[in-house]
């Protein structure tokens, strides 16, 4: 019977996906003319890691005990995994076998005040489900009207994949979509029994073919920094840079701040947007 949990991706499935993406040349192995499978064979990965082929096969089939840190390190090196991918590999290897109690989502009031006190640059606080928990006035003006949205709709994955206007707002939609799915994959590796995450992945899978395709690729991503382009009907294209700050604690809260280069058209656009959305001065 199929597992109804869409987060039930296993260590073996991830190893198979990563093995298929790596060519012999990339792994430093001699290439052969005829290969029946894409990427590396199981015995080739076992040789690179220093394991018996039988043990590696049992890892992919989910029949082995939890691998040691040394084995996970060797797998990460052999499969050319980056930092986020290695972290996800460890999460899958150490994931709980039973559902844990639901976590309580608590945002510190002081963190909300910090975000709201930023007057000249958009900023939001998110969790690893892509829920937007706090925002300032410029973020609500540029990204989405968060105060007017129902709480469940204040989720960037839903905005990216289910909002029909998403491609018009997010000019780099392809990059944003891939990163969003990668963030959700990381969260699923940490908490495969999170009921809110299970519902979200199920909803996105039913509502978006693009999401289903990206989810099947097992890509993982940790939000960091980089360029981001928005389009606003009043000010046009706004090309910003974002930085992500991880909030200490177990809730995986992220503070994301968008900034414009001094003297750039984007800085002018943010100034104009701030003026257009400014609250009237009290009499």
Please describe the topology of this protein.
Blueprint: H1 11-21, H2 24-27, H3 42-49, H4 53-60, H5 69-78, H6 83-94, H7 109-116, E1 123-126, E2 132-135, H8 137-142, H9 156-162, H10 166-169, H11 173-190, H12 195-207, H13 209-216, E3 225-232, E4 236-246, E5 254-259, H14 265-276
Antiparallel strand pairs: 1-2, 1-5, 3-4, 4-5
Explain this structure to me?
This protein folds into 2 domains: about 10-95, lambda repressor-like DNA-binding domains (434 Repressor (Amino-terminal Domain)), CATH 1.10.260; about 110-275, Beta-Lactamase (2-Layer Sandwich), CATH 3.30.450. Helix 5 (about 70-80) runs antiparallel to helix 6 and helix 9 (about 155-160) crosses helix 11. Strands 2-1-5-4-3 form a 5-stranded antiparallel sheet. By secondary structure, the chain is an alpha+beta fold. The protein is built from 14 helices and 5 strands. The radius of gyration is 22 Å and the shape is elongated.
Short description:
The protein is an alpha+beta fold.
> Under the CATH scheme, which class of the largest domain?
Alpha Beta
Largest sheet: 5 strands, antiparallel
In the CATH hierarchy, the architecture of the largest domain is 2-Layer Sandwich
Rg from alpha-carbon coordinates: 22 Å
Number of helices: 14
User: What proportion strand?
Assistant: 5-15%
The helix-and-strand class reads alpha+beta
**Number of β-strand runs:** 5
Number of domains: 2
State the distance separating the first and last CA atoms.
67 Å
- Can you give the mean pLDDT? 88
CATH topology of the largest domain: Beta-Lactamase
N to C succession of SSEs? HHHHHHHEEHHHHHHEEEH
What order do the strands of the largest sheet run in, or round the barrel if closed?
2-1-5-4-3
Name the shape in a single word: elongated
Flag low-confidence runs: none
Helix coverage percent of residues? 40-55%
């Amino acid at each position: 019977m199929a597992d109804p949990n869409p987060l039930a991706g296993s260590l073996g499935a991830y190893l198979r996906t990563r093995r298929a993406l790596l060519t012999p040349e990339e792994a430093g192995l001699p290439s052969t003319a005829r290969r029946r499978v894409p990427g590396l064979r199981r015995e080739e990965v076992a040789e690179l890691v220093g394991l018996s082929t039988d043990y590696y096969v049992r890892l992919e089939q989910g029949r082995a005990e939890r691998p040691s840190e040394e084995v996970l390190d060797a797998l990460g090196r052999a499969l050319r995994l980056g930092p986020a991918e290695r972290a996800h590999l460890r999460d899958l290897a150490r994931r709980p076998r039973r559902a844990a109690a639901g976590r309580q989502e608590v945002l510190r009031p002081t963190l909300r005040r910090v975000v709201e006190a930023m007057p000249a640059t958009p900023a939001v606080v998110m969790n690893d489900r892509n829920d937007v928990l706090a925002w300032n006035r410029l973020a609500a003006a540029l990204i989405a009207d968060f105060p007017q949205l129902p709480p469940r709709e204040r989720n960037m994955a839903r905005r990216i994949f289910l909002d029909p206007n998403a491609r018009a707002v997010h000019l780099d939609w392809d990059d944003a979509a891939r990163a969003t799915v990668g963030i959700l994959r990381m969260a699923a590796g940490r908490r495969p029994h999170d009921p809110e995450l299970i519902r979200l992945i199920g909803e996105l899978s039913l509502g978006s073919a693009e999401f289903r395709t990206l989810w099947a690729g097992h890509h993982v991503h940790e939000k960091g920094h980089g360029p981001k382009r928005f389009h606003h009907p009043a000010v046009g294209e706004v090309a910003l840079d974002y930085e992500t700050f991880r909030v200490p604690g177990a809730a995986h809260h992220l503070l994301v701040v968008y900034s414009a280069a001094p003297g750039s058209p984007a800085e002018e656009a943010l100034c104009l947007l701030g003026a257009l959305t400014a609250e009237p001065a009290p009499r």
